[in-house]
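Field reference: "sequence" (input) and "structure" (output). Example, FAD-binding oxidoreductase:
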Amino acid sequence: MNDRTVPLRLPTDAITQPEAADVVIIGGGIMGTSIAYHLAKAGVQNIVLVEQFELGSGSSAKPLGGVRANFSDPGNIQLGQRSLERFASFDQDFSVDIELSRVGYLFLARTPEQLAGMEEATAAQNRLGVSSRMISPEEAGQLNPYINPEALLGASFSPEDGHAHPVAVVQCYAAAAEDLGVTILPRTEVLDIDRADNVIRSVTTNRGRIRAEAVICCAGAWSGGIGELAGVELPVVPVRRMIGLTPQTPTGHPTVPFTLDLGTTFYFHNYRNGLLLGISHQQEPGPNREYSNEWLAEFNAAAEICAPGLATPELAAGWAGFYETTPDHNALIGQDSQVAGFFYATGFSGHGFLQGPAVGELVADLYCGRESFMDPAQFSAERFSRSEAVLHEANII
């Protein structure tokens, strides 16, 4: 691949939609582009990726950019760990700067229950080779001078984690996939998925019909509707999340870990010469992506507890985006057992960007019928029909 940070692409109108494909990928965010690249790299031919808007314009456009293996569930730990390895080699593999900053993740505990859960999660991470550790409130304050150590009982720190630039990663995967022969069609909306005898037969878009016997749904917040077209239940609903950016300053701010308080869901990290600030402000599910400052009241109350110097911040900008949520706030990855040829990777509930490289590899292996670095069975959408199989992840915001 040539040295570039933005893919060189033909205008959309100049790209002809093929009449047939081996597989149609629906969704052009981190999941769709990663899967397209990994499938093409595995030798799969005639891949078509369709995106109803522009590449990376859904949940991938406005995430926090965090990359981590600091989870409590072993499956999430493995996905984060594998992705971190891939993020670390992007410069070498693709000659693209994704602005990877491995400043670490700092999770804060303020109750005995949070501390016990954090100790258990850290032990699980260590068993899988993650270099996280429990630290004292005093060390947390040394790592992040904005933090009030007196508010804490303890914290966990994972030094290999950090944050990167989501748009650069999506563009990179898209360009690499195109170089390997993938047809990418932005501004192409899926209108119907035809199946006969529970076998995928074709995908109809606003450009026409594509004969195909396999579909991979990576449509993020829109995945529920795509599933309905194919007769597959994907319990994914969009929920608005908002963040703010402080003004850029000539001297910047102290470099701090990506810091999150489990109790209030308050978080922040460096962003260029400013700070990115947020909190998981409770919202009703729905398609609203309009930004407002309503989240600041909860943010300020949490900041007064955890980091008083960040309360009532001056903001230079803000944005709103979707969390594509599932009932247990964990991903859906798998192949439908009733509709042959229907695969999915969606519902990441805020963790999609950081798990994208690993999921691309995992789904490509699943499609090719070969053993992968882990078994995705726990992430099957069918787990919700078995209450004992619902996933429990403590380190989520």
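The longest strand covers residues 237-245.
Residues 78 and 128 are 8 Å apart (CA to CA).
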